[in-house]
Structure formats: structure tokens, C-alpha cells
Amino acid sequence: MVVKDNYSLREHNTFGIEAKASRFFEYTSVEELQAFVRERAASGDESPLLHIGGGSNLLFLKDFEGTILHSSMQEIYVTANEGDYVYVRVSAGIEWDAWVQYAVDSRWYGLENLSLIPGEVGASAVQNIGAYGAEAKDFIIFVDAVDLQTGEIRHFTAEECRYGYRDSIFKHELRGRYAVTHVHFRLSHEFRPRLDYSGLRRALEQRGYDETNLTAEQLRQTIIEVRREKLPEPTELGNAGSFFTNPIVERSTFERLLKEYPDMPHYEIDSTSVKIPAGWLIERCGWKGKALGRAGVYERQALVLVNLGGATGEDIKALCERIQADVKEKFDVAIVPEVNFIA
């Protein structure tokens, strides 16, 4: 285990925000985490506690006056092979894209569309990460977690996780209560590419790939290239990827907007609701490539807020609020941050 006091979190958030934690505890096993929780409970320590992954979905607004927990567990274990499917238990501390690459190399299929999403495996089960028509919930069957109040282990079924669009029970009534230690996935032995997302087939055609004999590695590399064209590397320009979730609006709202903006991209959800790209709304408000002090909107993708150098969490938050206000005023649509603000 690693225990450090007055610890810099700059390397633990992809915005590159300089913030410190009173204490940092990195554990190498479930037993170490359980021992920490039980010792903390026995001592009566009631200071704030926060479990983090790769920090790709966090915005620290100030120093964290408490303990940051982080997993360094790195296990991938096949629990079963049944028919067309393989069942795999993956440690929460593994980098997400490293897990996707491992799965493709092992000929376990399904995760290709989720390539190059930043963060760690544990966060995928909390955030229900998604891209190009796929979501983590499509493949998660169980989540193992430790109760941060008692140290007890709990196994959540996918149904108990109550997954929704970029959402789960861990972001609501169980927020901060559990630390995800392992995520169980069901992947296929047969490659069945999902190509119905807008622009994906076009990107494959531009690279000379024929979808009739497409390989998983070709699909993965295409998605990686497309993502890199749109998103800056956090090591070069601090960011958290997509900062806002795409708003899902009532059909009446969508029809009102479509009359005024016939070119508005959209995605049908059901008979009563439609998803509108938040990036399009932000760009139409004139924010693409613009800055507010040391925080800015990425010039290639309006959905991405960036640290232009030396920005604080409050700088990013101020930009977020200005953008929200402008989108609300222009379209009467509310956009919500996907990033978690840590005050």
C-alpha cells in the first residue's frame, strides 16, 4: 500500500488542476481496503473520503480536506466460458483502454467502440461510459464493491446498478458509499461490429475498410484515430473529454428547434424523446475555440473544455456556467456536466 500526506493530485486528474489531498491511500488488494475502512471506523474518523480512478471525470475546485482512495489492483481473470460468451473479472484499477486492447488481443469482442475512453475500469461501472452507439452497461453483468462505512463486500447485479445514459445508482443514492473493486464483463467469442452510429461507416470507408470483412482491430484503430482527431491529449492540453452530457429533450421541444434549425443533428430515443448533441448547441452559441481567462473550449470539438495553462477548478467551472447560461438563453435547453465537481 501507499500512504502519503499533503499529496498533490495534479497527476490524478486529467485537467491537470493543482490541488492537494490531506491524505492519499493507494491499496493493492481488497483486504487492504477493508482494513483501512475498519480502522477508520474504529478511530471515529469522519473526515471526507473520496475514491477516484484515473481522474478523467473529476474537477477539483479546491484542496481536498480528507482522504483520497485509489486502487492499484491489476488483475484480469476469466471466470467462465459458456457457448458464445466469455466471462471476465477485471480489477477496477486497470486503465480502461488497456483492458479494451487486452480483450481485442484475446479475441473477446464487444468493447471496440469504447476504445480510447480515458479513465480506469472501475469508473466505467460508475459512469456507464459510452461512445459510438455502445455503453459499458451492454457488457457489465456484476460489480464488486466495498462498503466504505463497514468494509463489507457487496456484489451488485447490472440491474441493481440501475444503469441509464451516463448514469448509475453509484452517482445518486449510493454516491460515495461504495468503492468498486472489480467489474465483471460478458464478451463474445464472435466479432459482431456495431456500425450504426453516425459517421462510423464513413470513417471506415475513408480508411479503405470493407465492413463485410472488417476486423476488431481495424474498428478499434479507426475509433482511436477519430477520437484523437477530435480530442486533445490531456498531457498536452488538460481536459476531461466530453464535459457535458447530450441533452435528451421532449419531442415537442425537438420539433420546435427543428423548425428554426433544420440542419440540427439528433438521435431518436423513443416516441417521446430525442437526443441533441450538446457540442452542436455550444458551437451554435459561438463558444467553439473561445476562452474565458485560462479556461477554453477546444477548437476542434465544442463539447471539450480545456485548461489553457494554470487554470483552477473554479476557472473551468466559471466557463461551464457561462456556456450553460448561453445555451439555455438561445435554445431553452439545459445542458448538464458529465464531469463531477469536487468541492
Number-wise, the strands total: 20
The average pLDDT value, as a whole number, equals 96
- Uncertain regions spanning at least 5 consecutive residues: none
**In CATH's first tier, which class of the largest domain applies?**
Alpha Beta
Sheet of most strands: 5 strands, antiparallel
Please provide a written account of the structure:
The chain has eight helices and 20 strands. The chain is of the alpha+beta class and 343 residues long. The strands form six sheets. The protein has a five-stranded antiparallel sheet with strand order 6-7-12-10-11. The chain is globular and about 60 Å long. The chain has three domains: 2-71, 2-Layer Sandwich (Uridine Diphospho-n-acetylenolpyruvylglucosamine Reductase, domain 2); 76-230, Uridine Diphospho-n-acetylenolpyruvylglucosamine Reductase, domain 3 (2-Layer Sandwich); 238-247 and 276-342, UDP-N-acetylenolpyruvoylglucosamine reductase, C-terminal domain (Uridine Diphospho-n-acetylenolpyruvylglucosamine Reductase, domain 1, Alpha-Beta Complex), CATH 3.90.78. The model has no long low-confidence stretch (mean pLDDT 96).
Question: What are the key terms here?
Answer:
343 residues; Uridine Diphospho-n-acetylenolpyruvylglucosamine Reductase, domain 2; Uridine Diphospho-n-acetylenolpyruvylglucosamine Reductase, domain 3; Uridine Diphospho-n-acetylenolpyruvylglucosamine Reductase, domain 1; five-stranded antiparallel beta sheet; four-stranded mixed beta sheet; 8 helices; 20 strands; globular
